[in-house]
Amino acid sequence: MSTGMAVRITGAALAIGFFRSAAAAEPLCVPFDFSRGSIGLHVNVKGVPLFMILDTGVDPSVIDLSRADALGLKVDRAAGGEATGGGDAKQARAFPVTLSNLTISGRPFASFDALAMDMGILSETYGRALDGVLGYSFLADKVVLVDYANRTVGVLDGPADAATLVRACGSRWSIPMRSYEGDSIPVVPRFRFGTASAPISLDTGSNGGIALYQSALDLPGVRAALSNEGETSYSGARGDAKTKTYLLNAPVGFGPFTLPAGEIVTLRTTKGSIDTRVANVGNKLFAEMKLKMLLDYRNWQVTFFGDCR
């Protein structure tokens, strides 16, 4: 069974740009499907119901190739390239496309750039048909509040619109929204592993918790805190892959938020570094902490709210 849906797709070689809407819009709050650990949203494209996940770790957005063709979207097959990401498949072809006429709960959104690719393997592992992924090209001009406890996503007019939604929260922690060079995934700079701390990436496309990279093993105390729990599989842009799982006998957290020792973590072959990230952290951990996460892409700020009544 997959413990991660982290799809990493780079469109740099395809010269993909991003559309930024100049006009503000009224706040929108909708429930999300968390039955499989990802932020699943029911959307419509050209009036056709689709199911997509919201993913801070994908750049740009993605739509299933067969869906794009059926909807009459213009797929540029002459400019295709290789998608990068998790999985063992040697090839994962992706093609530029403009995703237009998308609505969520009747609210229309401006067209944005995407890649069209076969999502069959991801759908099979996920357990239901996945029509696409709303990634950075969708998020880039938006203010989004993810409420893990109440399973809702808010697309807000501005950060001030979150005030009433987080009023009952007893703690908050803000950081600038930054990534490492050449990427757009948000990075939390001082994530704690026991007494050590290092940067991690914040990945709402992952239905797992903590996926350690090899560089995490060099952090003081981390290697000694791991107890082997076996092996599992995960899915990415290049299909399925195997990874080892461990019990982490050390508390983890960031800002004022902490979970006790005992988290099940995976160990990837990705090297990582303390200059970029030593781990990728997904929805499972944020849900365990019962956080509300305000992703303010307009002002490049991330704020976490906890201890919410």
From the structure above, extract its key features:
2 domains; disordered N terminus; 309 residues; 24 strands; 9-stranded mixed sheet; 4 helices; Cathepsin D, subunit A, domain 1
CATH topology call of the largest domain: Cathepsin D, subunit A, domain 1
List the strand order in the largest sheet.
5-6-9-4-10-3-2-7-8
CATH architecture of the largest domain: Beta Barrel
Shape category? globular
Q: Compute the gyration radius: what is it?
A: 19 Å
By DSSP, the count of extended strands is 24
* Structural domain tally: 2
Q: What do we call the CATH homologous superfamily of the largest domain?
A: Acid Proteases
Give the percentage of residues in beta strands. Answer: 35-45%
Query: What do the pLDDT scores average to?
Result: 88
